[in-house]
Amino acid sequence: MGTVVKSKERVSRRTMMKGAAGAGATGLAVGVGTRMNGGGEVKASALQSSVEEIAEARGLTPDDITAALKTYVPSGVHDDFLIFSSGGQSGQVLVIGVPSMRLLKVIAVFAPEPWQGFGFSNDTWDVLAGGEVDGKVLTCGDTHHPGLSETEGQYDGQFLFINDKANARIGVIDLRDFETKQIVKNPHIISNHGGTFVTPNTEYIIDGSQYAAPHAWQYAPIENYADEYRGAMTFWKFDRDAGRIAQDQSFSVELPPYWNDLADAGKGPSMGWMFSNTFNTELSYGSGGGDAPPVEVGASQRDMDYLTVINWEKAAEVVAAGRAEEVNGMPMIPMGVAVEEGLLWFVPEPKSPHGADVTPDGKYIVVSGKLDPHVTIYSFEKIQQAIADGKYEPDAYGVPVLDFEACMEAQVELGLGPLHTQFDDQGLAYTSLFLDSGIARWKVGGEGVDDGWKLIDMIPMQFNTGHICVAEGDTVSPAGQYLIGMNKWALDRFHPVGPLLPQNFQLVDITGDQMQLLYDMPIGIGEPHYVQMIKSERLENIWEVYPEVGWDTINQAPSEFATQIGQERIERDGENVTIYMTTIRSTIRPDYIELQKGDKVTLHLTNVELAHDATHGFTMPGQDINLSIEPGETTTVSWVADTAGTYPYYCTEFCSALHLEMMGYLLVTP
Amino acid sequence: MGTVVKSKERVSRRTMMKGAAGAGATGLAVGVGTRMNGGGEVKASALQSSVEEIAEARGLTPDDITAALKTYVPSGVHDDFLIFSSGGQSGQVLVIGVPSMRLLKVIAVFAPEPWQGFGFSNDTWDVLAGGEVDGKVLTCGDTHHPGLSETEGQYDGQFLFINDKANARIGVIDLRDFETKQIVKNPHIISNHGGTFVTPNTEYIIDGSQYAAPHAWQYAPIENYADEYRGAMTFWKFDRDAGRIAQDQSFSVELPPYWNDLADAGKGPSMGWMFSNTFNTELSYGSGGGDAPPVEVGASQRDMDYLTVINWEKAAEVVAAGRAEEVNGMPMIPMGVAVEEGLLWFVPEPKSPHGADVTPDGKYIVVSGKLDPHVTIYSFEKIQQAIADGKYEPDAYGVPVLDFEACMEAQVELGLGPLHTQFDDQGLAYTSLFLDSGIARWKVGGEGVDDGWKLIDMIPMQFNTGHICVAEGDTVSPAGQYLIGMNKWALDRFHPVGPLLPQNFQLVDITGDQMQLLYDMPIGIGEPHYVQMIKSERLENIWEVYPEVGWDTINQAPSEFATQIGQERIERDGENVTIYMTTIRSTIRPDYIELQKGDKVTLHLTNVELAHDATHGFTMPGQDINLSIEPGETTTVSWVADTAGTYPYYCTEFCSALHLEMMGYLLVTP
Question: Is B47 within 8 Å of A509 when comparing Cβ atoms?
Fold first, then answer.
């Protein structure tokens, strides 16, 4: 079996190459180039298939060939970047490698997921229940904007936050184990959109209301919209040591019943401030059961809406000074106080704005008007000057509206339906064009920049791009290199899979003079809205296994229910039965459990293995239970044995050659 | 913007190329080859990056380059094959393109999925409830073996079936819209594994019990295992016109309390028969609370277990003749009757068998012994001859065990831990080796074949391969070309994502003299057990949109609740409120709904669009509702308005530039 040896050599070679990757070109790789440049026959593999033969047979163009070579990541080689993507209405987060565009994991956040055991173990159910509404534990969500934790304006690879627009909730994911640890429900607003965006040191997680409603999830007649409906900007305090949002140190700023869209935190010179665009200043709430036009018409009347500008550092001081009001258990700064304290400002923005993105240097804020072909760039310095100069008039709610011309730095005409802007490491900006189905590249201007505020080129997208992402493109130091367009319509891009189509992520190489489309990635799990792309090397704290056998993965601490081999037992206290169970290849202990009908069962299950990838699963027929017990984890599930029967339970993760035999019998006597 | 035009040309060109794909090499592609063979500088793209520069910079080996080119599928070009993969403990089915290995869709089957609205609309909840256990609707499952419907032994692209091992259920997916239409629970057995495997014209879906238990989900003391625990082989009748399993025409054959593993249907000369391997003939049930060893030891004592051989055509006649017994509402042929009628036989199989695969010509059955380094090949003709010659002795349950030597055609030594076998179009077979972490290729023998029953070569896998799949490799006419190894351990293959790792699908080119590894695909959604790979061209019945506006997607017929534009209305009958709603870019009608606290609401929602990809979503805050309404679909959801408040509902699928404005207000008065 000579081929086997050859292939094994190949695997080891890969490991070597990975080690040498930092050097860029290895001796081997140079060898490749030499052989391919040589005249005559090109033999690129032991298969005797040459590059041109394959390209010909498969109809690949020259651009396809470079795209293939720029995106292929061989077995055992790791991707250079990871993207964390919202999973849209799936309620989850997707983790994808770049440039391979391979889906590495779906992280359950707002919807139960049996593979991960999320929502099936007691502790993960409790995480979901943290976001309950009026006693109902929700099992879906509409995730929009993932936010990686930052230190000094750069991703630090520690935590990920994600919003649920539908129910105004935030999920917190620990990037040591890629699991959701907390869900909080916003007590003030019922619908969010401008979240999650973090401040430069993750002091706060910004969460802006979308559709106005009476605060605190209350009822008010629709005709009282102007008076009783409100927006809010919530600042969730993040306790990094605890790995939790600290609701008791969080607060909101009351806003008029405009609808807030996307937000971004200031940095550098604009540190301490945040920016959000705000539309529907028309106060449309649709027909309201009468003759008024629907929102799509009603909210598109005015030529200008607003950029909302908030000094969050000042707001925190105002809360500390006791000038906020307690609303539904959390402080809120009333609009009047916010205005009085000079921490809340509006700046006019052209028509139905979308996207508010701060340049890496913190000097400018870029806003798109989705019904306007321009991006509008505001200067933070000019905004401060306009405030100092008193260049403002109050709006109907008394919020000072700064003079547009005084704050505006530039406008760049890009195309139809501009939405979102990201930045690279070369001083360039990229803006998605929803209606034109493309991405415009333009040059950021400012002091000392020649030819700034100018469109460079455009690449078409397939089709209708929403958000875009440049690697680390919303940090203080973008990485550039790759751009991803998140396209809302896929149409003919992929093999048909029925009337519900995947979305289409398109990977673009932005290193060259022209942008090159590299890869179409179908997303057949929800509609991802936004992603953040982080250099792999920043994710240095990921655990291969849990720190010790018997680990409470929610509290990231030793579990009080940890069970070692030999400690397995079944304890009965009346009808309450507690089982301490272990898993190890290929045995579940105990492998026999006898219950009486009506027993209340609590099962503590410990995976006593600490070998990498030695995960075990656990299922109990008819009880709607599936758990994932990663190496070292202790988890708990409770149920009532309400039906007599014979229940074979087993390991659901193919762990070993005798995995099918890794089972036990639970009997419930009549 | 010259680049735009260029890129647009590229898109059109792609469309042309797709049209010409049947011809193999297009003029353009030949051009590529010529340019790359020419001496001097190779300029493969407008980016001025040459193949060798990219390969050098990215450290790609010659094999990597060919692998990249063999797997890259450019934007707008469709994959040649689709695979339908079990989603393991995720409870779902994954649809993946080959050779690109891109995940095109996750189809919800046994677990709710909000993006698809599965389990959230009334009708999809009813589908889940079809598999309820003792009144509990289950929201998880352990899918193992997808089975595509067949006509004359070849996939016909119409339906897909998938089992839930944990609760002995079967899901039925319609491949016109890739949605789950039915879930049935096996009334006889509590745990299945040998399903779903279809007979050559999808007459029946085979579903074999895994862990023995008293029939009909009953209780019996573990010490009565030999007498009261039983296995069964269930034959689910499929009604192709109705697109449903017809439970009233289905039946089981009673089996001893051995554990059945994998099954396959006979074809050609063996049409009308089926084969399943059977282990734990030791009758181990683990410790049973006493001193007996766990199953991993107890079930591995004997040198021989059994291949179970059933004449299902005869069994159907026996049921029709009234010789079956009604057990929990479905007929079962008692073992004694099965033996008497000559429809049930055992053939000895070496040690802990796994996998039972019928050769494409239907002449042989290949079985692996997972604790034996061989595959054992049985001749169907020899089995029939042994039956005719009376070469058998009864086992402890009276089932005739045929003579091993009389039935055995050949044994091939392959390596450690052989599990599953598939076939290609060249007369070769492929067997996964779990312990050796590889796939062995060997030659099928038989009449007129030289050098048959012989190992050819092996390719290592990363790591621990379970099932494998060759394109159409379990049909009467395998397509060959690609093989996929489903590896259970990924270890270092991908960028770390925490202690719970993805699985690793490895795509292998089997067209050459040596097998070539092409691609590693991480599966971060459950642990897929088995896949089937079908030529794309067989999936010709897929709908782009539903046939008409107002479509009931479960019954695939016009819905009685279809609502056209202008017919939207709110009807009240006491506290019962019925809403007829429509969606169209970018309006939801009605956009205002007023309810009283306590109202019982039924919402019928019709997407009045028939444009490809014009799906709308719908969510209602705090009510745990997310629906997907594909073009033409009518769907229904009910809830109780039990909390006063102001609820902005909206479209959750980014459908248009004014998608954010596609909303309405529902008010519940206190």
Answer: yes
Mean pLDDT of A117-121: 98
Number of H helices, E strands in chain B: 11, 44
CA distance A562 to A583: 12
Say what the pTM is.
Answer: 0.94
- The closest alpha carbon to A86, from A206, A195, A205, belongs to A195
C-alpha angle with apex B258: B254 to B259, nearest 5 degrees? 100
DSSP H or E stretch at residue B143: strand B143-151
Write down the number of H helices and E strands in chain A. 11, 45
A531-535 sheet: strands from edge to edge: A102-107, A93-98, A81-86, A531-535
CA torsion, ordered B490, B493, B497, B500, to nearest 10 deg: 10
Question: What average pLDDT does the segment B553-573 reach?
Answer: 98
Task: Give the closest-approach CA distance of A352 to chain B in angstroms.
Answer: 9
Helix, strand, coil shares of chain B as percentages rounded to 5? 15, 40, 40
- A168 contacts chain B (CB < 8 A): yes
Alpha-carbon torsion, ordered B296, B299, B305, B306, to 10 deg? -90
Q: What is the pLDDT of residue A607?
A: 98
Contact, A647 vs B198, CB < 8 A? no
Report the percentage of chain A scoring pLDDT > 70.
93
pLDDT given for residue B47 in this prediction:
32
Q: Name residues 96-135 of chain A within 8 A of B (Cβ).
A: 97, 101-106, 111-116, 120, 133-134
Question: Are residues B73 and B99 in contact, defined by beta-carbon separation less than 8 angstroms?
Answer: yes
Residue pair A637/A624 in contact (Cβ under 8 Å)? The answer is no
Report CB contact under 8 Å: B499, A213: no
Residue type present at position B206: I
B551-669 to CATH, choices 2.120.10.30, 3.90.180.10, 2.60.40.420, 3.90.550.10: 2.60.40.420
> What are the residue boundaries of the structural domains of chain B, listed by start?
194-283+293-363+376-408, 551-669
CB atoms under 10 Å from CB of B539, counted, come to 21
Sheet holding A592-596, edge to edge: A592-596, A663-669, A645-650, A616-620, A625-629
| B73-123 pLDDT tens trace | 999 999 999 999 999 999 999 999 999 999 999 999 999 999 999 999 999
Residues in chain B: 670
Q: Which residues from chain A sit within 8 angstroms of residue B219, using beta carbons?
A: 644-646, 667-670
pLDDT of residue A316: 98
Query: CB of B80 within 8 Å of any CB in chain A?
Result: no
Contact across the interface for A213 and B514, Cβ inside 8 Å:
no
* Separation of alpha carbons A644 and A663, rounded Å: 19
CATH architecture of B194-283+293-363+376-408: 7 Propeller (2.130)
Which pLDDT band, with edges at 50, 70 and 90, does A619 fall under? very high
B409-446 per-position pLDDT tens digit: 999 999 999 999 999 999 999 999 999 999 999 999 99
Structure tokens at B210: 């895994």
Cβ pair B604, B634 in contact under 8 A = yes
Residue B17's pLDDT is what?
29
Residues 453-482 of B with CB under 8 A from A: 455, 457-460, 462, 466
* B70: nearest Cα among A72, A215, A644: A72
Q: What is the CATH number of domain A186-413?
A: 2.130.10.10
Residue A315's region, left for phi above 0, alpha for psi from -120 to 50, else beta, is alpha
Segment A110-131 shows an average pLDDT of 98
B587 touches chain A (CB under 8 A): yes
**Residue A16 corresponds to which tokens in the numbers above?**
């070597």
The 8-class DSSP code of residue A514 comes to S
